Amino acid sequence: ASGSETDQGGTTDDFRVPVLLHTMPAVTIAAVNGACAGAGLGWACACDLRYAAPSARFNTAFLDVGVAGDMGGPWSLPRIVGAAKARELYFMPDKFDAQEALRIGLVSRVFPDERFREQVGAIVQRISEAAPIALRTMKAHFVEAERMDFASYIELESAHHLPMFLTHDTREAFAAKVEKRKPRFIGR
């Protein structure tokens, strides 16, 4: 393991994982089909998208083991489910199932256990076929929007928007739409 060791055997590098998941240029997906508690929940919340199988079980768990929480959960969870619900989940760490996670907006969809990998795989495939420049820029927009006021964000967005029309991939996407065919992106 790299990084300095913590009391529980983890490393300080572990605490960089949620930042990496949240800010890396690639779209990150949490596919939960089992236990998702504590640090694992923090990592899932740092992802762009979250999906669950009915077999998934969630829990903040931190107060149960006498710690205040880690892996960015108190930052990311309120942005996903709202401040009051996030506090409730942290202050009263009860286990909840995939349907409750869907109801509160923690996950976007719940897929049947027997088709879970196939369904999440189809989402991964769909995203991987998107125009790479547009996808990376879109993710960067979401990350930057969290740090800016609305007017500053609009300036950033407009600075990226017009040059995108000069890329091969955007021209290809428009041509493919008109020609009713699948676009062939090359990342330029």
Task: State the distance separating the first and last CA atoms.
Answer: 37 Å
Order of helices and strands: HEEHEEHHEHEHHHH
Q: Supply the number of helical segments.
A: 9
* Biggest sheet record: 3 strands, parallel
Radius of gyration: 19 Å
> Strand order across the biggest sheet?
1-3-6
> What would the average pLDDT be, to the nearest integer?
91
Strand residue percentage: 5-15%
Q: Which class best fits the helix and strand makeup? A: mainly alpha
The tally of beta strands, per DSSP, is 6
Task: List the uncertain runs.
Answer: 1-7
- Shape summary: globular
Helical content band:
40-55%
3D architecture notes:
The protein starts with 16 loop residues before the first helix and ends in a 9-residue tail after the last helix. By secondary structure, it is mainly α. The protein has nine helices and six strands; from the N terminus they run H-E-E-H-E-E-H-H-E-H-E-H-H-H-H. The protein is globular. 49% of the residues lie in helices and 10% in strands.
Task: Give the helix/strand layout.
Layout: H1 17-23, E1 29-32, E2 35-37, H2 39-46, E3 49-52, E4 57-59, H3 73-81, H4 83-91, E5 96-97, H5 98-103, E6 109-110, H6 116-128, H7 132-145, H8 150-164, H9 168-179
Parallel strand pairs: 1-3, 2-4, 3-6
Antiparallel strand pairs: 4-5
Helix pairs in contact: 1-2, 2-3, 3-4, 7-8
Which features characterize this protein?
188 residues, mainly alpha, 3-stranded parallel beta sheet, 3-stranded mixed beta sheet, 9 helices, globular, disordered N terminus
Would you summarize the structure shown here?
The protein has 188 residues and is mostly helical. The chain is built from 9 helices and 6 strands. The strands form 2 sheets. Strands 1-3-6 form a 3-stranded parallel β-sheet, sandwiched between helices. The protein has a 3-stranded mixed β-sheet with strand order 2-4-5.
